[in-house]
Amino acid sequence: MRVLVTGGAGFIGSHVVDRLLADRHAVVALDNLSTGRRERVNPAARLLVCDLRSARLDDALATARPDAVVHLAAQASVPRSVADPRFDASVNVFGTLGLLDAARRAAVGRVVYVSTGGAVYGDTDVLPTPEDHPTQPASPYGVSKLAGERYLECWAGLTGTPTLTLRLANIYGPRQDPSGEAGVVAIFTSRLLAGVECVVNGDGEQTRDYVYVGDVADAVARALAHPDATGVVNIGTGVATSVNDLYARLARLARVTRPARHGPARPGEQRKSVLDAARAKALLDWAAATPLDAGLATTLEYFSERSHTTLQQATHGGRGLTDPATKETRP
Ligand code: NAD
């Protein structure tokens, strides 16, 4: 089938593009390259550089003629949503609405929306959290992602198009940006490799549900293969891992003995988040397949090859980055 992947130049979106190509779908990535990067997009996919909020979106869909849309493009930073909630809403609410409107005009037959578990459930003692747990977002990002879900459900009812929301846990893996405030695996990994001390916010006993990015791409592939699956599905491992435990695992893999330093706790940071993925198993026959240590080892290898390549480029003026996640050489 022809699939349009919004946010296809992003961290998760680029892995989704790779997986759908491997499944022999024809894939078009749509991205405004704000946090996405052109070089992440598999050359076998077409990249349309376009903003979700642009008047050119109809033309983009007319060009792509997708049977299905996977919607990942978003303002995905919680701190940025707190600092600038209007911008967050403009991308996550109005951008999503614009996409749904254009998808209706282009008669798209299936929409898979990538949302977030932790940020829409908020802090809760019901762990692992199931889909029917009340939502209580504590950030503008959680509110805007939830608004996207509600518009999607409404749109499904109005158009009769089957839609599915995937509420992701905390995703990690190759290509995650280590320069932001989120993405603790990428941040710790790049600092450990650079020999720089890692800082754990607060006591480090806050827990998260870490899912390897390849398993998310697998969930999206299954969502497209099961058009009868509708509603909301959690994508998580059901396993809670503390930040202290995560650091210990990464440090062991990187052969670093230095302990992390504990900094001040982040105000408003969620204490616990872990998702119940039983519905994903029932509807999509999906379960996380990558054990945490294996996923962390692959991620470490990716960042270590990259830092090696960057060093070589700096030393020898070499060109061409080999991306170990895809084994491709890109111009
Ligand atoms: P990312 O920032 O790498 O990807 C987002 C992509 O969307 C980028 O390529 C960016 O350029 C693009 N984009 C942003 N605004 C756009 C616009 N107005 N028009 C077109 N493209 C635009 O982030 P990610 O971590 O890969 O997140 C992808 C999706 O997964 C998001 O919807 C996010 O809410 C969701 N999610 C991520 C996580 C996680 O742990 N990373 C967890 C839960 C949910």
Short description:
Helix content is 42%, strand content 18%. The chain is an alpha/beta fold.
Question: Can you give a write-up of this model?
Answer:
By secondary structure, the protein is α/β, with parallel strands linked by helices. The chain has a domain at 2-173 and 210-240 and 273-290 and 324-329: NAD(P)-binding Rossmann-like Domain (Rossmann fold, 3-Layer(aba) Sandwich), CATH 3.40.50. Helices cover 42% and strands 18% of the residues. It has helices at residues 11-22, 57-64, 78-83, 85-105, 118-121, 140-159, 184-194, 213-225, 243-254, 278-284, 292-316, and strands at 2-6, 26-31, 46-49, 68-71, 110-116, 163-168, 170-172, 199-201, 207-208, 210-212, 231-235, 241-242, 261-263, 321-323, 328-330. The strands form five sheets. The chain has a seven-stranded parallel beta sheet, with helices on both faces. The protein has a two-stranded parallel sheet with strand order 7-10. Strands 8-13 form a two-stranded parallel sheet. Helix 7 runs parallel beside helix 9 and helix 9 (243-254) crosses helix 11 (292-316). It starts with a strand and ends with a strand. The model is unreliable at 317-331 (pLDDT under 50). Bound molecules: nicotinamide-adenine-dinucleotide (NAD). The site of nicotinamide-adenine-dinucleotide (NAD) has 28 residues, from helix 1, helix 4, strand 5 and strand 7.
